[in-house]
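Support request, please re-run this one:
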Amino acid sequence: MGYLLRRLAATLPVMAVVAVVVFLLIHLSPGDPAALIAGDLATGEDIARLRIALGLDKPLWEQFMLWLGRLATGDLGTSIFTQVPVSQLLGQRLEPTVSIAALTMLLTLLVAVPLGTLAAYRAGTWVDRLVMLFAVLAFSMPVFLVGYLLVYAFAIQLPWFPVQGYTRFADGPGAWLRGLVLPCVNLALVYIALVTRMTRATVLEVLNEDYIRTARAKGLGVLPVLGHALRNAAIPIATTVGVGIALLIGGVVVTETVFAIPGVGRLVIDSVQRHDYPVIQSVLLISAGVYVLINLLIDLSYRLFDPRIQY
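Re-run finished. Output below.
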């Protein structure tokens, strides 16, 4: 418990630095949201009045303190363009993004861990070379290119899956899952390649340990040996999964754009084009918080794999 409290306390300065960097990067970027909202026909006086109404005329430090004050009360602010609370906008867009991210990581673990273990067990054979070739190709191809190829093959030439859009889970689990197959496969390929390579390397190292040779010499079967080796190799794999989650945040944005899914990624793209500061700041801050929290959970999971670890 003491370790958990210390780690949680250590996240506070990290989030404070993230908040400052996010605020400065967005507010110092070129472009005036007041001019964009006012339109091309607006006069300089109209833009100045709108800037005052939005609070953009205040010094940066004052805007930052006001923003922090609202965050402390759980208020993420209001979208400059839609005049809708940011929390409401995120609530409307959260389900597609969470669905894609969760199914992508599930697909990654179900495919990558067995593939990497098989490649390690058959190291040096054609099976190993084939798995590694797949990993290199999957990691090298851009996400957007794979997405367009999947759409062309399995939505246009073979109309098995919808081309774009999102069906909510409440409207039917079957339609929901069918609409997520192509986006999740598209996004998962990179992470499958990453986790497969790490799994192969760590399991191969463990298979060369003396206790594995002893287990084989005593007549232990292949599956028990691989299961024992995989458990001892789980810590580097879990760390790789944590790093993959950071990449997943950026990959979701591209995937939602390719498949026209109305998720948080599309919301961020639209907000960046409009210079909608409250939305961008809230999404980036929440993304950083989620990443820090997930890495904390992964650190805590190490003891599940190796009880000898003491925090």
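The chain has a mean pLDDT of 78. The CA atoms of residues 1 and 311 lie 10 Å apart.
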